[in-house]
Write a structure and sequence with these properties.
Chain lengths: ~200, ~200
Amino acid sequence: MINYPAGQGPHKKRRNPYSSATNYSSRGMSFEDKINQSNLYYLKHQIAVIHKKPTPIQVVKVDYPKRSAAKITEAYYRNASTTDYNGIYKGLYIDFETKETKNKTSFPLSNLHDHQLKHMHDCYQHGGVVFLLISFRSNQTVYLLPFKLLQYYLDHFQKQSIPYEFIEQNAFVCSQGIFPPIDYIQALDKFLDQQ
Amino acid sequence: MINYPAGQGPHKKRRNPYSSATNYSSRGMSFEDKINQSNLYYLKHQIAVIHKKPTPIQVVKVDYPKRSAAKITEAYYRNASTTDYNGIYKGLYIDFETKETKNKTSFPLSNLHDHQLKHMHDCYQHGGVVFLLISFRSNQTVYLLPFKLLQYYLDHFQKQSIPYEFIEQNAFVCSQGIFPPIDYIQALDKFLDQQ
């Protein structure tokens, strides 16, 4: 590894303390990658401790070769029984799901499974801060939609999708940058200020 | 499925709303199974929402057979970067790790990885309720050891293990039964009452 003197060398690379060269810009990163990088930023700066849960996998067969690690040779993806992300921020229990849509005019509720909605409802009932992060690919905008609003919409309209206007008017825009790529904690602060 | 009239049929089976016949008693269940069953009990009775995180697995190769589910054909277990369990209870962020030991006189600290300790410390700093559940197989006793006490021990003694006496005197015993198999929330209440 080359240790460049201060003020010299490939700055863009070195300014990112988290990752390899291919990750130094948020361009080309998936929505999930951006959230994970943002969580790493929050963790390193002691802002919040939020992690993505591992993908649940049903292991069927495992080989145990001599002198090497156990090798899984047959396994299948399972549906998650909860949301993908949870953790703690300012002493609050945080729980959220991330969803991305190519749709321009609405967010399709089929994107959310019943067990995810139930889990979000359970956490909300117990006093958790629960929300959706919805990424609209068409205009590259990410919204934080508090569970209360999602629940309100489901209770009153029971439609197959939430219109973009409802989200635009009621949800909180997450500003985007490099560190963190998606500053959803800033949007969360705006929401919490209103409580 | 047979629907027995009320008051008849195999009661033991029917009284357990959670699981198949093989699970109706906690005998023979692993420590992890007992914690998972307890979490299910807490969830169904709206006491707490606490889940075990899936085991992290690094997927290397996946087959996509026609007309059937994606089949993972090469994958490896990874080390967890956090604790195994987290969730919410009485509006509090809960985070814990479960450890079992055959040792009679002490709890070996080698059972805890550095990244787990760091994660527990991070969560504690942010206001979370963090603890260890330690199962001593020798006397089938389960203790809830609050992170503050674990930290105290690490700071002051830096030993390879925590003596059983220290745990017996300072930690909280979890009562055991059938529903839930290990009532760690009751032990947690005792701890929280002292705060």
